[in-house]
Structure formats: structure tokens, C-alpha cells
């Protein structure tokens, strides 16, 4: 059995705890041998399922997805001879095969070893729950369909990092296993350079700042991440921000990432009290600052219509070329929706003077 760990992450992250009222679908089945010695079920599955961490298996057990002989069990359940161990989900299993799809790509750089892509907002990066086709990796597979050395189903090549579906901007793709390994080391060692631009609600008290915390899944809402200051909970995250423009009720900021955690900028800015403009998941899609005048409310609604997503763009990307050793630096303009949004705020503030 084999499924990319990223895909298993997507399945587990989106799945809800199971209950008797939910129809379950079998994704994995392992029958213990007659001579099986007593072994924790998380260790047992870790030994039998490729490309998945023991931590992910433990989370699946906590969500009620691990069954022994048809009954949900916890991670410490001891597997016995001839036990039937299954991984159940609340939706049918889908094929993990990534097929080429003719989807337009904005390739800003390409050589024999890597590509840099400017992703539009609205394009899902990788197949997952509810988005099994029409993703960026399907588009990359089409773009490289004549490259016999590039297998889109080989985890040793492909995307080196991700950005959210409704975030636009720059991503790097490795064409060879060596390139992916070397680029992955740079991301792990925090030697890459990545800046984002975002429109946020309100004006930060300080024009520059550093946010350091753990980021973990919000226990009250599985679709959200949250800040934690318990070093034993979540993953370490660091964001530096600089205010570029002050619009009184909103601000254009630049964020520089030291780490790349899920929803990092969105979570950190909400923690500061400045959610991203029109970020539905983190409460930025309502009027959080400003007046009660009807003209202002109409202006805000026009802004939401102009940029119908969180106002976040991965603007710059820098890394050392894995083969040539050259410093590579890329910059992308704000996409049309964010550019119009920013210009609209500039004009609105000017009319207030």
C-alpha cells in the first residue's frame, strides 16, 4: 500500500470524528499474521503503510478512524494475531494517481532542474478532499508531459512548498529528486527568502514587528489553525511584518516568513488583532474597522466584490539554485484583484482628507 503523506495529511486534516450516524468507507485493511506479537496499533500501521508518520496515525485514531475487528480503537490498542485492522474515512477512497490536465500555467522561470510558477488565486495546489482534479500539480504534469524523467506521482519530485488555494503568488517546483532534496533543505534550514503582501484590517501599533508562536489546529474548529504558546503543542512559527501603507481602517503590510506553517500569516495577523481583509475563515469578511455611514458600508462591499478572497499574495521568492549555486530571486506584481483593492483604498482615504 502506498499513498503520499501529503495526501494522507489532507484526508486526516479535513476528516471529522466518526459517529454511528456517519457512513464510513474503508481506505486500508491489514490482517495481522497468525504469529503476530502484541503490538500497539499505531506502530503496527506505521510498519505497514508507506509514506505516513506515526503522529498522523495517532491523530486518525483520536478521530475514530482506526478500527480493530470493526470497532474503533485508540493508539494504544494492542494488535493480536489475525486482528483485522482498518482505516476508515467519512468519504470513499479516491485514486491517488495524478493525471496531466491542460490547465494554464504562468511559468516565470524554468530550466532542466526546476520551475518557478506564479499561481493565481482560486487554484488548489494539490489533490485533496473535494479537489481531486483541476489542481496545480495536474497542470504541472501536463506542462512536463513530454519530460520522460518527470513522474508527477513520484514524491521525490514536484512541489517543494505550498500556498493556500485563495492565496496567489510564487512557488518553486523541482524536476529532479536531487533538486527537490536540496531545495527542501533550504526551506527546512530557513535559508530561503519569502515575502508576502497582505491587506489587513486596522493599523498595527508598531510599523514593524516579529510574531513568534506555536501554530496548531484549532480544537474548536478543525478548519482553522490557532496560536499556542505551549512549546509542546503545534509547530514553531515566526513571521516578521512591516507596514507599507496606512489607510486608517486597513493597512497594506509585507510579511517575511522564517517558517512556513499552514495559514501562518493569516493566523498570526488575526492573533495581532488584524485579520486579513476578506478572509472568511479567520473573520476578515465583515466590517471590523471604520464608520457606520452607508457610503462606507457600500465601499467595503465593493471591496469584497473586487477581491473575493483573503487579500494575500506571495510576492517574492529567493533561494540558491540546487545545481549551479546561483542565488535566484523572483518578484511578482500584485494580481489584478489585489491591485484594484489597494488602489480603491488609496482613493477612498484621499477623499477623506
Largest sheet: 11 strands, mixed
CATH overall fold name of the largest domain: Pseudouridine synthase
State the helicity in percent bands. 10-25%
Any idea what the CATH architecture of the largest domain is? 2-Layer Sandwich
Count of separate DSSP helical elements: 8
Number of domains: 3
CATH class category of the largest domain: Alpha Beta
CA gyration radius, whole angstroms = 23 Å
The secondary structure category is: alpha+beta
Query: Taking all residues together, what is the mean pLDDT?
Result: 89
Strand content: 25-35%
Record field, number of beta strands: 17
Give an overview in words.
The chain is α+β, with helices and mostly antiparallel strands and 353 residues long. It has 3 domains: 5-89, Structural Genomics Hypothetical 15.5 Kd Protein In mrcA-pckA Intergenic Region, Chain A (Roll), CATH 3.10.290.10; 107-184, 2-Layer Sandwich (Pseudouridine synthase); 193-352, Pseudouridine synthase (2-Layer Sandwich), CATH 3.30.2350. The chain is built from 8 helices and 17 strands. Strands 7, 8, 9, 10, 11, 12, 13, 14, 15, 16 and 17 form an 11-stranded mixed beta sheet that branches. A 4-stranded antiparallel beta sheet has the order 1-6-3-4. Strand 12 and strand 13 form a beta hairpin.
Essential attributes:
alpha+beta; 8 helices; 353 residues; 11-stranded mixed sheet; Pseudouridine synthase; globular; 28% strand; 24% helix; single chain; Structural Genomics Hypothetical 15.5 Kd Protein In mrcA-pckA Intergenic Region, Chain A; 3 domains
Amino acid at each position: 500500500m502506498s499513498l503520499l503523506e501529503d495526501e494522507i495529511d489532507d484526508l486526516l486534516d479535513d476528516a471529522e470524528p466518526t459517529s454511528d450516524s456517519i457512513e464510513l468507507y474503508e481506505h486500508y485493511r491489514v490482517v495481522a499474521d497468525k504469529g503476530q506479537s502484541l503490538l500497539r496499533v499505531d506502530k503496527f500501521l506505521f510498519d505497514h503503510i508507506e509514506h505516513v508518520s506515526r503522529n498522523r496515525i495517532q491523530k486518525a485514531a483520536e478521530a475514530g478512524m482506526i478500527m480493530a475487528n470493526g470497532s474503533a480503537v485508540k493508539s494504544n490498542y494492542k494488535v493480536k494475531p489475525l486482528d483485522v485492522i482498518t482505516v476508515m474515512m467519512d468519504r470513499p477512497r479516491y485514486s491517488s494517481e495524478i493525471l496531466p490536465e491542460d490547465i494554464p500555467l504562468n511559468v516565470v522561470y524554468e530550466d532542466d532542474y526546476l520551475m518557478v510558477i506564479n499561481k493565481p488565486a482560486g487554484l488548489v495546489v494539490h489533490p485533496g478532499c473535494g479537489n481531486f482534479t483541476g489542481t496545480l500539480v495536474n497542470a504541472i504534469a501536463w506542462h512536463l508531459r513530454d519530460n520522460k524523467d518527470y513522474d508527477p506521482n513520484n514524491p521525490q519530485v514536484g512541489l517543494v512548498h505550498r500556498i493556500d488555494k485563495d492565496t496567489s503568488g510564487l512557488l518553486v517546483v523541482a524536476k529532479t529528486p536531487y533538486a527537490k532534496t536540496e531545495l527542501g533543505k533550504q526551506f527546512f534550514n530557513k535559508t530561503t527568502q519569502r515575502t508576502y503582501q497582505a491587506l489587513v484590517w486596522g493599523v498595527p501599533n508598531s510599523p514593524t514587528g516579529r510574531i513568534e508562536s506555536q501554530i496548531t489546529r484549532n480544537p474548536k474548529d478543525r478548519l482553522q489553525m490557532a496560536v499556542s504558546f505551549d512549546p509542546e503543542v503545534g509547530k514553531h512559527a515566526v513571521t516578521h511584518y512591516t507596514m507599507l501603507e496606512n489607510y486608517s481602517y486597513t493597512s497594506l503590510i509585507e510579511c517575511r516568513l522564517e517558517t512556513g506553517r499552514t495559514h501562518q500569516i493569516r493566523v498570526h495577523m488575526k492573533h495581532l488583532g488584524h485579520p486579513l481583509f476578506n478572509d472568511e475563515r479567520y473573520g476578515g469578511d465583515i466590517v471590523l474597522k471604520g464608520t457606520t455611514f452607508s457610503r462606507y458600508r457600500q465601499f467595503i462591499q465593493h471591496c469584497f466584490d473586487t477581491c473575493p478572497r483573503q487579500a494575500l499574495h506571495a510576492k517574492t521568492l529567493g533561494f540558491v539554485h540546487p545545481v549551479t549555486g546561483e542565488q535566484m530571486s523572483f518578484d511578482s506584481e500584485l494580481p489584478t484583484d489585489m491591485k484594484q483593492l489597494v488602489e480603491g483604498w488609496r482613493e477612498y482615504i484621499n477623499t477623506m482628507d
